[in-house]
Amino acid sequence: MRPSTSDAPASVCAQGGWMQRAQVVMGRSVTVQVWADDRSRGAAAMAAVMAEMQRIARVCDPQRPASELAMLNAAAAAGPVAVADELFQLLARAQAFARLTDGAFDPTCGAVTLADPQQPGEPADELGLARAVQAVGWRHLLLDPATRSVRLARAGVRLDLAGFAKGYALDRCVALLQRQGIRHALVSIGGDTRLLGDRRGSPWTIALRDPDDADLVRALLPLQDLAVSTAVGRRREYRPRSPVIDPRSGRPPAGLRSATVIAPEGITAHALAKAALVLGVERALELVHAQAA
User: Fold this and answer.
1) Rounded to an integer, what distance in angstroms lies between the CA atom of residue 19 and that of residue 47?
2) Residues 249-257, mean pLDDT to the nearest whole number
3) Cα dist from 223 to 19, 199, 277, whole Å
4) 200 in Cβ contact with 35 (< 8 Å)
5) DSSP for 19-33, written as a single string
6) Residues with Cβ < 8 Å from 179, sequence gap 6 or more?
7) Number of helices and strands (H, E) in the chain?
8) Residues in CB range of 216: below 8 A, 6 or more apart
9) How many alpha carbons fall within 13 Å on the CB side of residue 206?
10) Is the pLDDT of residue 239 over 60?
11) How far is residue 260's CA from residue 96's CA, in Å, rounded to a whole number?
């Protein structure tokens, strides 16, 4: 899933227009488009988005040794670790989604997803995979609101918020743009997109692409003021990296090849899209319809 940008020129006149900027953050391409009254205002808004993305990566990227999440992974099995309110609240939201989805989405999946940075979800052998799966389970994540501390209930449990943090970052960036007076914008990272307003009189067009052929568009979604997330599982052709792993088995989901969820906020769209891919069509529809009720 990616935004359709054919009618969004990167250049803009000083009196106002569409502006676009792209940058790699957390290993993913980040794109931001804004309508700004003047070039300097738009450039400042886009720079603020990229800075916020980088800030969140410094908190939540488990692959950065100095990130707050990485340091939590290193210490929390030995005892409670006090964390900043932002990370505590993000973990609480992630655990709530894990409970809601019966573990189809699970922030404690790091024992599997972080086992080998080159081939996530593929530990060296079957025994290694079995051990990793035993260390996955949202009930191992113990949160104490009174002390704002986090404990991991067993050795080997590792938190991975890299994907979930994308949805959170989109929500933060849209709020930031609103505070700067921007009323029409798109922010996208990987398979997640958050829309602010419309395209000044017409909806944004989000293209849903075939998971095996990025040039093949399966559907066009006219949207505004919403978030969209697409989770992709195993492709038809073997590729060592699979974006989504079933936390309960440690392997890519065997059924659906992709799942897209539209929601009011990015954090919800991301969690439910991952869960939908793992759960399959019937259970995913039950879950999404229950949230919409």
Assistant:
1) 12
2) 85
3) 19, 10, 22
4) yes
5) EEEEEEETTEEEEEE
6) none
7) 8, 12
8) 209, 210
9) 25
10) no
11) 20
Pairing mode, strands 28-36 and 227-232: unpaired
Q: Are 29 and 22 in contact (CB under 8 A)?
A: yes
* List of residues 6+ apart from 208 with CB closer than 8 A: 1, 217, 218, 219, 220, 221, 230, 260
User: Is 148 strand, coil or helix?
Assistant: coil
pLDDT tens-place string over residues 207-218:
998 888 888 999
Question: Quick one: which of 90, 63, 89 has its CA closest to 74?
Answer: 63
Q: pLDDT tens, 31-60?
A: 999 999 989 999 999 999 999 999 999 999
Rounded CA separation 187/220 (Å): 17
Taking the CA atoms of residue 105, residue 111, residue 117 and residue 122 in that order, the dihedral angle to the nearest 10 degrees is -80
Q: Work out the average pLDDT over 266-285.
A: 93
Question: Is 197 in contact with 217 (CB distance < 8 Å)?
Answer: no
DSSP assigned state of 265: S
- pTM for the structure as a whole: 0.87
